[in-house]
Design goal:
5 helices, elongated
């Protein structure tokens, strides 16, 4: 079994991630959007998107990945998750119009999926930098 030398990049892993990237992205969004019809939804789809982000970070470590920017975007989506149901609850739009329930559930699944994906991404990035791996993490 070959040894993994720190600082050496693996061409095989780069090609695998490059090939799987669009499929994982599509699958993550599929799970998020169809969460109210099938098992899955925001958390599961967000986890798929976060694993995609982590795979990209591990294989292609970049210096411009800023966890503070991801954390700021996460806060925006969290506020949307909290404000959207309150607005719809107090206006009664969803209860008066049953066709909007599907749109409401899909929108909430998307918001939760992005929130989970960003949250897990931020947590993993912070863990990587805390452990001292940071920008020199190569396989």
């Amino acid at each position: 079994m070959p040894d993994i030398v720190p600082g050496e990049e693996s061409i095989i892993l780069q090609m695998i991630v490059a090939l799987l990237y669009p499929f994982m992205l599509l699958f993550g969004f599929y799970v998020i959007i169809n969460g109210h019809y099938t098992p899955g939804g925001g958390f599961q789809g967000g986890s798929v998107l976060a694993s995609l982000f982590v795979a990209r970070y591990v294989i292609y470590p970049v210096e411009d990945t800023d966890s503070e920017v991801l954390h700021a975007i996460q806060r925006v989506f969290l506020s949307l998750i909290l404000v959207a149901p309150m607005v719809l609850l107090f206006t009664g739009i969803v209860t008066r119009n049953p066709e909007l329930r599907t749109l409401y559930l899909t929108t909430m699944d998307i918001l939760i999926g992005v929130q989970v994906g960003l949250g897990l991404g931020v947590a993993i990035l912070r863990f990587a930098f805390f452990e001292g791996v940071g920008k020199t993490w190569h396989l």
